[in-house]
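Hey, resending since the last one bounced:
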Amino acid sequence: QRPRCSVRCGLARRAANQPALTRTLGLPALALLGTVVIASLLAMIAGAQPLSVLGLILKGAFGTKFATLETLNRATPLIFTGLAVAVAFKARLWNIGAEAQLYMGAVVTVVLGTGALGWPSLALLPVIALAAMLAGAVVLLVPTFLKTRFGVDEVVTTLLLNFIVLLWVSMLLEGALKDPMGLGWPKSARLVAEARLPRMIEGLRLHWGFGLALVSAGIIWVIQRRTTLGYEMRAVGLNKQAAAFAGIPVNTVLIKTAVLSGGLAALAGFSEVAGLKGSLTLDISPGFGYTGITVAMLALLNPLGVVVAALFVAGIFVGADSMSRAAGVPTYLADIMLAVALLLMVLAIMLTKFRVRRD
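The structure tokens again:
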């Protein structure tokens, strides 16, 4: 009888001295290329020409000045929520509640921006933004306290808070915040002119919330790369026990991370209300908080990469609307593209750190 030969496969961590530039840049690029290939196959199944569909998505997102500005508008809240997730995940604080923090920031913006403070714009806008950030921070501080004090899993608490806050906002829009001039619709009163973010280009919808998002990305990059807090956040994220042994106050770092992450997510609500909508409705976010997780993962938790990833995601969504009308392909193709991109990017991240080993 011949002996059986079996080959077992496993994962082995790559050596630290191996050149990593090709893997770090090449594998994510291959992941995006794989996304395009799969999207092309799906377009063929739907009865359309793949290159035509991809061209229509690109044209719908960046083909005209109006389309480009709409993509930048859609990217603005995604940058804020992507930064919020990236900051939290870097310290292994699994913030799945950016949606709740976004709505809390929007509520505070409406409360203070509908006439409660009769200040000029230069004083009123910073106060509203800071108050919104504080409210978002409080929403994330509750799960963080439960995690550090009692060991409660923050994935569960932050996720459940999304539904709690959304129901609370629905109650407010049917009660205390309901616009008496809204003909019965569940929406808040409109913000006063002094509480509105000005337009970046007169006559178009792009507002200075986008500029604030870019500045925030730069500030977060500086914090992570050039400050003690950023070093402590990375250390806690890499190895909590080793960080504590080195004298880093782990719980304090997590609390600071929660304040920063929750505040960033709340700025998404502030920018949507003060910059774009002018009032609060229950559908002000079509899932920006959840999409921020995708943005952060596509960016490999890099704050500057979050801007690029947010533009990529926003371009797909905006371009898919135009593509659907022109080619007759369902807009669900955009959701599939993002899901495939995320899965392939996670695989690429894993392969940058591990290699397949055959025994």
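DSSP finds 13 helices and two strands in the chain.

Sorry for the duplicate.
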